[in-house]
Amino acid sequence: MNQYYSPNDLVDFEKDFGLPLVPIANTIGPNDPTDPGIEASLDVQYLMGVNNCSIETWVISTALTTPSGNEPFLTFLSGLSNLTQVPYLISMSYQDYEYTVSESYAQSCNQEFMAYSLQG
């Protein structure tokens, strides 16, 4: 997805809005803090702002889009099964248009979402 966040920008955001200074607990996958993206930065900043530090926050980043140009949701979802501790909450601000993915890909993503949600 080629979007990154900056820990320094997060500290500035937390200070500006009087929030506790809490770093991201886990970052899995690539993150280039010298090249933060607007989308990723806003996601991280506002998630930290509303979670009231009551949940551990993770950032999980995957590679760029798939060869077909779609977001790598299946890669992300499959990767969750490799974690010993999975996040309790997932927030995504990316989408694919349903007509741009194959039915088998959509069904595979649906299966992974269902398997993940069954974990509680």
Automatic annotation (TrEMBL):
Tell me which InterPro entries the record gives.
Peptidase_S8/S53_dom_sf, Tripeptidyl-peptidase_I
Q: Which domain of life is it from?
A: Eukaryota
Which Gene3D superfamilies would you find in this protein's record?
A: Peptidase S8/S53 domain
- One GO BP: proteolysis
A GO molecular function assigned to this protein is: serine-type endopeptidase activity
**What PANTHER family does the annotation carry?**
PROTEASE S8 TRIPEPTIDYL PEPTIDASE I CLN2, TRIPEPTIDYL-PEPTIDASE 1
Q: What is this protein called?
A: Uncharacterized protein
UniProt organism field: Vannella robusta
